TrEMBL record:
GO terms for cellular component: plasma membrane. Residues 610-620, 743-757 have a biased composition (Basic and acidic residues). Its main location: membrane. The lineage of its organism: Bacteria, Pseudomonadati, Pseudomonadota, Gammaproteobacteria, Enterobacterales. Residues 652-675, 722-742 have a biased composition (Polar residues). This is Type IV secretory pathway VirD4 components-like protein. Keywords: Cell membrane, Membrane, Transmembrane, Transmembrane helix. It is a multi-pass membrane protein. Residues 179-566 form the Type IV secretion system coupling protein TraD DNA-binding domain. Gene3D superfamilies: P-loop containing nucleotide triphosphate hydrolases. PANTHER family: CONJUGATIVE TRANSFER: DNA TRANSPORT (PTHR37937:SF1).
Length: 757
């Protein structure tokens, strides 16, 4: 059965192929016949016209008469025939053909005509060849046009030359010189301030374009701040004594701390948001907002007490100071209710999150270079110093939070400048997905133009930005970018997304149909057209791009072009990173690796899991604590009561240092009070009423120097994780005896930790 189908298919294919081939040959024969007829006509007409133009009338007349007589006499044999001959003076005489053939004068006229005819043939041949070439090109282009898709509207694909010409025309229309170009394609002035996004997998050539942009900034003596992985830009652009390196593990690094950017509540809140990012994976936002509130309050309190606060002092407080002492430190701030010593595990959970995110800030004490301030750097209009924020791959987990805070400080510093149309400050953040969420980045992308910001962002794919910023924020970020260089993305989903970013188009698609039959008159070829919408570039074209090749989209009505650029081979002038003594200490490296075993995201996940169970159970209080009117209520009940009340709990005293974007604060916007309280403080104040005025005071003993121990953070988080695992196991085993479970649970604050916790 299968063999019969195969034989039938073979015969059908043979018949179909033969019919199509014969139809093709007939069509080709028709085309070539008509083609050569046209060329021949051109040749004959050209020969006649040229011969007539270059030949004298007498030579033309006498030469033709000689040819006529020569044919009769020599070829036909009519030697007695006569012909009428008109002489140059106008007389007409009857002369025998034999006399004309034998006349030297007539032979000279004939030779002149033949000579001119040969010249005409040469000229006509050239004319015919030229005509044949142009006719061939016309027919060929006509065939291509008939089979080519016609662009109706939407994005267009052009060659590099066409894009450069279109961009130059746009610059001329704008009337202002371009400051930045990409692969010799000029950008309309101020388009660079909208940002340039380099999208593609690692190793595809994004850094090559970044170096091209940086060379232009250096040539114009502009300042820049760069996130530099592995010190690739330091190797090629660093100028010792002028530029700044920020890396706590580099011997050349300047020192930097949180208070170098100023001492004000808004700055502290920005620092807290950069240090402790939103949990885009879900979960209760309270466990992000509360640690932020506490961290901001600690920065504020240290900033008030010391002219130049110590980062080491801050970390001692976070890692070593007992909870009751921390509660006293923040007693006059909105964070007083976050460090609630009566609510079981609240302080411990908050402290676990803030420790997980800030534990590596202690390394800010390592650099011994001059103190650096992004604010002062940005305000120095006469300086063209570059700031290199470097990191090595093995340092990313350790330095991620502090690098995010540094970049946040740099962006915020630029946004505080006076507006200027002449200023241009480069901000290069390659592989931005390796950092935490930079809170000011979306706002920077949309407003930096008037302050002279020039953002250069590098991402691997949309999935990377979605993880860091969340889907909505990621979309807002990409929508604000002015130019896109689309490199190869190896994944099909990422390539499909990138193809969408390059735009779509509406085209008139052409399709060719061939019909054939037993009679030749039935053979025909028809071309049909229909409108179709689709992506300008297919995702398969994205995944097939070679290295150092990208699709460049400038927007503003300009076409998209495929650009290939060579590797620049810039000379390396300096080491990327010069390790300090800390990285030569094996015990330090071992401890560093151990500390990063527990990620901040893991801690937040544990806290959310624990408290999703805890908030459905009555709150416990420590033995010896004063009775609380909200004892026995769940956290949800306490929060609901605060939201429902028209006035805040009695005895609440806070200072305004709240983040207006706090989701808890938005939920409680209906609460009317004379003193605007942070939502976290309001929610927890009901269960943490002030016992006396002394609660608002703290003494200098709270800020006593504590022994700094890098082991503390790891032990703290490990103990917290172990505690949660033990309690979860106990809960599962004893779920039928709630009373027994509650007695077996250990309060987090009752654990004993090194350093007096």
């Amino acid at each position: 059965m299968l063999d019969q189908k195969q034989e039938k298919s073979t015969v059908s294919d043979l018949n179909r192929g033969g019919q199509v081939l014969m139809h093709f040959i007939r069509m080709l024969h028709q085309t070539l016949t008509r083609y050569f007829k046209i060329v021949l006509c051109v040749f004959v007409i050209a020969t006649t016209a040229v011969t007539y133009q270059i030949t004298d009338k007498t030579d033309w007349y006498m030469g033709l008469k000689y040819g006529y007589s020569y044919t009769l006499v020599e070829l036909i044999g009519l030697k007695k025939g006569k012909t009428t001959l008109e002489l140059p003076d106008g007389r007409k005489v009857m002369v025998r053909d034999a006399q004309i053939v034998s006349s030297p004068t007539m032979q000279n006229h004939a030779d002149a005509l033949i000579s001119n005819l040969i010249i005409s043939l040469v000229i006509s041949s050239i004319v015919a060849l030229i005509a044949a070439w142009y006719l061939f090109r016309f027919i060929l282009n006509k065939g291509k046009q008939e089979s080519k898709d016609e662009h109706r509207r939407g994005a267009e694909l052009a060659t590099v030359k066409e894009l450069i010409e279109a961009a130059n025309d746009r610059v001329k229309e704008d009337g202002r010189l371009s400051r930045i170009s990409i692969a010799n394609v000029p950008l309309v002035r101020y388009q660079e301030n909208s940002g340039i996004a380099l999208l593609g997998s690692p190793g595809v050539g994004k850094s090559t374009i970044i170096r091209e942009l940086l060379r232009q900034l250096r040539a114009q003596q502009r300042k820049a701040v760069l996130y530099d992985i592995s010190g690739e830009f330091v190797k090629r652009f660093y100028r010792p004594g002028k530029d700044v390196i920020l890396n706590v593990f580099d011997t050349r690094s300047h020192s930097w701390d949180f208070w170098a950017e100023g001492k004000n509540p808004a700055m502290y809140d920005r620092m807290a948001k950069a240090a402790i990012p939103d949990n885009n994976g879900g979960g209760d936002p309270f466990w992000i907002e509360a640690p932020r509130l506490l961290f901001s309050a600690l920065l504020e309190q240290l900033g008030k007490r010391y002219d130049v606060p110590s980062v080491e002092h801050l970390m001692n407080i976070i890692l070593r100071m007992p909870n009751d002492k921390i509660a006293n430190v923040v007693a006059t701030t909105d964070a007083r209710n976050v460090m609630n010593l009566d609510l079981d595990k609240l302080a411990g959970s908050v402290r676990a999150v803030i420790t997980a995110y800030t534990r590596n800030f202690k390394h800010l004490a390592l650099p011994t270079g001059p103190r650096f301030s992004f604010k002062n750097w940005a305000q120095d209009e006469d300086s063209d110093a570059w700031v290199f924020i470097t990191v090595r791959d093995d340092m990313k987990d350790t330095l991620k939070p502090m690098i995010t805070m540094m970049i946040e400080s740099a962006l915020s510093a630029i946004l505080t400048l006076e507006p200027s149309q002449d200023r241009l400050i480069g901000t290069s953040i390659d592989e931005a997905g390796t950092l935490q969420e930079i809170p000011s980045l979306p706002d920077f992308m949309s407003t930096c133009r008037k302050f002279g910001g020039f953002p250069i962002l590098g991402f691997q794919s949309n999935a990377q930005t979605d993880v860091v910023y969340g889907e909505k924020k990621s979309q807002i970020l990409m929508d604000g970018i002015g130019a896109i260089a689309a490199f190869r993305i190896n994944g099909s989903k990422g390539a499909a997304w990138l193809a969408d970013q390059l735009g779509d188009q509406e085209t008139e698609k052409s399709s060719e149909n061939t019909s054939y039959g037993a009679n030749d008159v039935r053979d025909a070829t028809s071309i049909n057209r229909q409108d179709k919408e689709g992506n300008l570039i297919l995702r398969s074209q994205i995944t097939a791009l070679p290295d150092n090749t990208c699709y460049l989209k400038l927007g503003r009505g300009l076409p998209v072009a495929k650009i290939k650029f060579p590797y620049d081979y810039m000379k390396e002038l300096h080491p990327g990173i010069i390790e300090n003594e800390a990285l030569n200490d094996t015990s330090f490296l071992s401890q560093l690796s151990k500390e990063n075993e527990i990620s901040p995201e893991h801690v937040v996940s544990i806290v959310n899991k624990e408290n999703s169970r805890e908030k459905r159970e009555p709150q416990k209080f420590k033995q010896g604590s004063k009775p609380n009117p909200d004892a026995g209520k769940t956290q949800e009940q306490v929060l609901d009561e605060v939201i429902d009340n028209s006035a805040p709990p009695d005895g609440s005293k806070t200072t305004s240092n709240a983040d207006v974007s706090n989701p808890v604060a938005q939920a409680m916007s209906s609460v009317k009070s004379k003193t605007q309280m942070n939502a976290v403080a309001q929610a927890m104040n009901a269960a943490n009423k002030k016992q006396s005025d002394a609660d608002d005071q703290d003494d200098e003993g709270d800020f006593s120097n504590l022994q700094f121990d890098t082991q503390v953070a790891h032990d703290f988080l490990a103990e917290y994780e172990s505690s949660f695992s033990t309690e979860q196991s106990n809960t599962e085993k004893n779920s039928n005896n709630d009373v027994t479970n509650r007695n077996n649970e250990k309060s987090f604050d009752q654990h004993e930790y090194p350093g007096g916790m």
